[in-house]
Write a sequence for this structure.
């Protein structure tokens, strides 16, 4: 995804030297960058965050986001990257960059994070699909290092055994933390003789996992392991996230404890909308974007603000359209909107007037928003 963001949110890049390059499977590889002492503060990060890489392709600068697999205590920027086709950014990057080269790497950012609770007994469950393992791996390494009382369960969906990225590293984690970490693999394109572990990770699989793998809890004989789950981490494609997030919610996990990271554009809501809104027609919208002022009229409020502005060909930044990435964050200066459930804004940010255009239903005849966040 090209990095098109309002000036107020432009990110800082620095040249980092590639320290390691490793092919993991036929379609995935790992990169590791050195962090010079002079940039140590700029590259402090939280588990689950990502960086953006810059690459020149056919005389233009292209930027792409990649989640880190490294944990903060490792003090390095390590990435897992999947090659989808020979024309992709990932393929060109793998072919052109070699150990010792420098590449422009952004400072870390992202909100697929958890509050650390090193003194609590916690149970955390992770669901990963394909290369979606990358931020979940960062989380698990960090939690195992910083939370000695927390136990973790990972359910990792891949095509077949040959496509398991970071298998060696995952095996080492299980060996080192066998009493606190369980990992189960699910194969969508390989028969292994056990139906539970064949097929995609989805809502039906979650029910089977709860009933067959997360059974009686050794720490509490009157409840199950699922009853003790504190947080759920999900990363993968949109359909997978939607299916698993809703399954977790239906099985008793509060939405605020279900965290997800999306790796591609997804135009659907993660959770069903349970509220109807009054019809508003001929809506006047004034907005500021890239230091320019725009005015337009929306036919009605049947679609979200972002979607309607995109239909009218305005260059509003976006990535997921599902309230996850925060690219369409803006400030509501006049009027009223209903901000639907999202994974990005905090309660404090919402109280300050910040909204996500992709999750905003307009409720007044006139609104004014500022994408430049000045």
């Amino acid at each position: 995804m090209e990095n098109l963001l309002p000036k107020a949110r432009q990110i800082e890049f620095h040249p980092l030297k590639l320290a390691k390059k490793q092919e993991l499977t036929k379609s995935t590889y790992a990169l590791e960058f050195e962090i010079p002492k002079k940039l140590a503060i700029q590259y402090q990060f939280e588990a689950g965050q990502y960086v953006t890489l810059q690459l020149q392709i056919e005389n233009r600068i292209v930027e792409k986001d990649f989640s880190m697999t490294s944990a903060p205590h490792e003090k390095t920027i390590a990435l897992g990257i999947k090659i989808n086709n020979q024309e992709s950014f990932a393929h060109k990057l793998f072919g052109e960059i070699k150990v010792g080269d420098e590449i422009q790497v952004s400072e870390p950012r992202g909100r697929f994070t958890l509050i650390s609770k090193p003194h609590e007994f916690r149970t955390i469950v992770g669901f990963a699909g394909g290369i979606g393992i990358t931020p979940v791996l960062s989380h698990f390494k960090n939690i195992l290092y910083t939370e000695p009382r927390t136990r973790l369960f990972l359910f990792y969906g891949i095509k077949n055994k040959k496509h398991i990225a970071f298998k060696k590293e995952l095996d080492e984690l299980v060996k080192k933390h066998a009493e606190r970490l369980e990992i189960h693999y699910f194969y969508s394109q390989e028969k292994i003789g056990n139906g539970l572990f064949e097929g995609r990770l989805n809502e039906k699989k979650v029910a089977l996992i709860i009933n067959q793998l997360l059974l009686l809890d050794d720490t509490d004989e009157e409840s199950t392991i699922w009853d003790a789950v504190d947080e759920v981490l999900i990363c993968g494609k949109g359909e997978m996230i939607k299916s698993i997030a809703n399954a977790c919610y239906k099985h008793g996990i509060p939405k605020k404890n279900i965290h997800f990271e999306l790796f591609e554009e997804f135009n659907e809501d993660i959770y069903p909308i349970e509220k109807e809104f009054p019809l508003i027609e001929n809506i006047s919208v004034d907005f500021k974007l890239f230091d320019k002022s725009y005015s337009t009229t929306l036919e009605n409020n049947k679609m979200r603000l972002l979607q309607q502005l995109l239909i009218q060909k305005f260059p509003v930044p976006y990535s997921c359209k599902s309230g996850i990435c925060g690219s369409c964050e803006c400030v509501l200066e006049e009027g009223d909107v209903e901000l639907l459930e999202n994974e990005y804004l905090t309660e404090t940010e919402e109280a300050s007037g910040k909204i996500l255009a992709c999750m905003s239903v307009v409720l007044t005849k006139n609104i004014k928003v500022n994408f430049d966040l000045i």
In short: DSSP finds seven helices and 20 strands in the chain. The chain has three domains: 7-106, 123-262, 281-370. The first strand starts at residue 13 and ends at 23.
